[in-house]
Write the structure tokens for this entry.
Amino acid sequence: MTNMTINPPSVPKRDLVDDFLDGAGKVPMPDNKLLMPWEKPNVRKDVKKAMQLVLSEAYMLKLQYLADKTCKSQARIAREAVERAIDTALEALY
């Protein structure tokens, strides 16, 4: 009859520490693909960041006019326009 214990077989602590330290700071990358900063797994889609936007008076009035006519906020109109412009610029870059 085999003696049974309640303790599982242990792994030497040195191996656990080495494994932990070896993986510190590494971001998993599928297929060795270089990840762009916005593609990294720690980037959350639900987090919004604020920035200041300076517009000329004419563009500010245009933005206010669009907001009145479309029932969208000025911030939403500006955010959507900036996001489209960024995506277009990145497509042209690559």
